[in-house]
Design brief:
homodimer; alpha/beta; TIM Barrel; 2 domains; globular
């Protein structure tokens, strides 16, 4: 085992748990991740608009990098020659890389899936490429991430049962093939279970994957088209199928309430582009619900985005200024909005962790929803 | 007089001078500007992509704000209700606002100039507006900038002598009308001389303007189409026409070598969008000349942009990473490139100031040009 994972508290009213995940890092210095934790997404070697300094300032403990994007540009071999992804982007903390599986299905055109792997065309220039479980491992080895994800097949929902079943079988075979590819000594491996919203297939996938020597396990194939309640239910069903003493990661999730439900289900790690993507669209998350900063009502509002937030954006700028930057199409808007949204996400994670450690998570959850319901404005997703 | 301007050293081989310009600021705290100084341009309430913290970190002592842009969006009355431009954008240092004159001629369409003022259409939505010298003062009063520029008429070059002569007469009349509009107690006023490249008209304009009670004087109407050598020559000719004991400002200038020639001509203040605009296009200024960061030769270059620079960008990131960000179209590229280019501009200003104070400015100038000529690559402007 490359990682060390210790649980420090468990909630008595839900499956929530608080722990510490230790990773050795390439440097050997080691890093601790306080779980449950959210991972900001740094798609192409940067969390859009932000520096490592910004990310540290808001409490980021681990970043996610996208294998598919980095393979296409600047190329994993180049990243390796430049010292690995962390050194390349000047981020000294841990990095988790996804396998590229989700992206070759969702972003690229004309993908063809066969047992050997997936043929796809680049979303950048239409050029033809082929990803296999082995190549995904080799790319992630070159990127030198700290947590390497198995190459899985992730069908959109809804899909016919046969398609989900086939993806479960293939994901298992691909996981086994990936394990045969050696990684660097500091790199941990996580397996991914599939199975859509089918309990039998989820159980089968979890049984197969957890029999393999992975350092942690992810629940994949959710948040891909199904209603949020179904996703929550499947997270609650799937988490206990995974070993209690290994970190559990719910991929691509989600909205703040999805993080809360995920933590209640016993999940330790999350990632999602929502805080940064919505920031770019002017949607800001606050302790009182979402606001759209472009709204005219903010044009002379001298308050901070969220009075309960202590991020650089809330400490320094008014809603009126942030609205102006958004309306004027200024780059600074993206940066300041992204800082706030990520700070908000990381804050609710650390608040949840404290509440679990102090055995008041049920109360915290109730207060969270009560405050969200009394939100500043009702805005569509 | 609102300002206090002290000269601390004069170069014996040129008209260069080093001094300190003190401004009271609205807060009464006061601010010192070490001259010669370059002013980063914050067009619409932000230096594109940068925060006040970034600007302070690279040694910015005064910002320029654009009256035309801020009048259109978010509107000067709104800025005033929000506490003035400095408070609005969270910049605590001094701000100089231009008069909007240059922009209504260059940016807007269908402008019609008459004695009363200028009718123009907004570059944003085509709406019709009218700027007079009086309104320009009122707008700048609402913006609460620390240095207010007179509303002038700036013809492009080349223009017929009659057009330049007319602009000189009008600029004089408009300056006088502007002086009749009261400002806030902390606001200093600068007059602007015109006259194109005509020595007689420059002399006439300087004589007329310097008879008026301005705190400082700007040389306008240059860097608007004439060759750089002509611009330098006109700066050398015009600077001595302005009182020695007041700050001199060469508007809209320029390239690093133009700053050097301007300082040699006896100029104290400069502004230009070049460092930030070129940063967005991937052109970076260095002690060894310009480089285009998109150039393939940098794709695995692990050195900093400029080994002699100590800005955040050069301290933290490689050329390879900056090239990747530019090629991938990432927002962070704009930010990191802008930080470096502005840091470079501010560094050559402070280097020139030290060289003047230490009576070695002639040697410094020779070394500056020698290093620039032995540049890293030759790239077109």
């Amino acid at each position: 085992m490359v990682i060390d994972f210790q649980l420090h508290a468990e909630d008595s009213t839900s499956a929530a748990r608080a722990g510490v995940l230790r990773l050795p890092l390439k440097s050997g210095v080691g890093a601790e991740i306080q779980t449950p934790m959210f991972m900001p997404v740094g798609t192409v070697g940067t969390v859009k608009g932000l520096t490592p300094g910004d990310l540290r300032a808001i409490g980021t403990q681990i970043l996610l990098g996208n294998t598919y994007h980095l393979y296409l540009r600047p190329g994993h071999e180049r990243v390796e020659r430049l010292g690995g992804l962390g050194k390349f982007m000047a981020w000294e903390g841990p990095i988790l890389t996804d396998s590229g599986g989700f992206q070759v299905f969702s972003l690229s055109s004309l993908n063809r899936i066969e047992e050997k792997g997936v043929e796809f065309r680049s979303h950048l220039d239409g050029s033809k490429h082929f990803f296999s479980p082995e190549l995904s491992m080799q790319i992630q080895r070159s990127l030198e991430s700290d947590i390497v994800m198995a190459f899985d097949q992730c069908p959109a929902l809804p899909s016919p049962r046969e398609a989900i079943e086939k993806a479960v079988r293939r994901t298992q075979a691909w996981a086994e093939r990936g394990l045969a590819v050696p990684l660097k000594p500091h790199q941990a491996r996580f397996g991914i279970i599939q199975g859509g919203t089918d309990r039998e297939l989820r159980t089968q996938s979890a049984k197969g994957l957890t029999a393999l020597p992975f350092d942690g396990f992810a629940i994949g194939g959710l948040s891909v088209g199904e209603p949020p309640e179904v996703m929550h239910e499947m997270a609650r069903f799937s988490a206990p199928l995974l070993p209690k003493d290994r970190p559990r990661y719910l991929m691509g999730v989600g909205r703040p309430e999805d993080l809360v439900e995920g933590v209640r289900a016993g999940i330790d790690l999350f990632d999602c582009v929502m805080p940064t993507r919505n920031a770019r669209n002017g949607q800001l998350f606050t302790s009182r619900g979402k606001i759209n900063i472009k709204n005219q009502r903010y044009q002379e509002d001298q308050g901070p985005v969220d009075p309960e937030c202590s991020c650089e954006t809330c400490r320094t700028y008014t809603r009126a200024y942030l609205r102006h930057l958004f309306v004027a199409g200024e780059y600074l808007s993206i940066r300041l909005n992204s800082i706030h949204n990520l700070a908000y996400y990381l804050k609710i994670m650390s608040d949840m962790r404290m509440a679990i450690l102090e055995h008041r998570f049920d109360l915290w959850t109730k207060e969270f929803y009560a405050k969200q319901r009394g939100g500043l404005e009702t805005s569509p997703d």
